[in-house]
Design goal:
By secondary structure, this protein is an alpha+beta fold. It is 29% helix and 24% strand. The chain is built from six helices and eleven strands.
Length: 205
């Protein structure tokens, strides 16, 4: 795996990056950069996966496509990322029926540079693990998750994590408990010394 000393960590600013992409909406090639995302004040969700034309990946792409519009309306742009080329992305999108509804950008990290930055590139195989990273509109890494090759991700949980970070972005005095699902659900307000040992009471007040 990548050198842990050079991997971006939670709470840190993500270094600038730019990726070649295949855009299924325009059926054309494009680019996406963190600089542009910050300028547009958009959240960025990087969705690393091992390779095109594989099996679990196709199911993840279909599940992600089901909620893509909701992510977009809430201010997040999804970018799937593998070490495949943009040309392979195009071919997979056109041939695999599980990807028929995919409308998000498919990023080509051909050299593995971005995968190394996030610590998910397997240098032996040249493939990336199933890493999911949420980057705030200011460019800060606020959430990360990594699964091995054989386990697909739960997109409902990704939506929950994104929604929580979106909700908390302007509420520094609140935290979301384990069962938080959406805005309006119970949060813990002003956690501090008085709440120590009294979380049950705070949740049920």
């Amino acid at each position: 795996m990548s050198d842990a000393n050079n991997v971006v960590k939670l709470g840190q600013m993500v270094p600038e990056f730019e990726l070649d992409t295949y855009d299924p909406v325009k059926d054309d090639f494009a680019k996406i950069s963190l600089k542009d995302q910050i300028a547009k004040k958009r959240w960025t969700i990087l969705f690393f996966y091992p390779a095109d034309f594989t099996f679990v990946c196709a199911t993840e792409f279909a599940a992600l496509a089901e909620q893509h519009e909701k992510f977009s309306k809430l201010g997040a742009d999804i970018v799937t990322v593998s070490t495949d080329t943009k040309f392979t992305h195009l071919a997979w999108r056109k041939n695999e029926k599980e990807l028929a509804n995919v409308r998000y950008a498919m990023g080509a990290d051909k050299t593995g540079q971005l995968g190394r930055m996030f610590g998910v590139l397997d240098e032996v195989s040249g493939l990336t693990l199933r890493g999911t990273y949420i980057i705030s509109p200011s460019g800060t890494l606020v959430s990360s998750e990594v699964n091995f090759y054989n386990l697909g991700r739960n997109i409902d949980e990704l939506m929950r994590k994104f929604s929580a970070n979106l909700y908390l972005a302007d509420k520094p005095n609140e935290v979301c408990p384990a069962k938080w699902q959406k805005a309006g659900d119970k949060t813990l307000k002003n956690p501090g010394a008085k709440m120590v040992g009294k979380v049950h009471e705070a949740l049920n007040s």
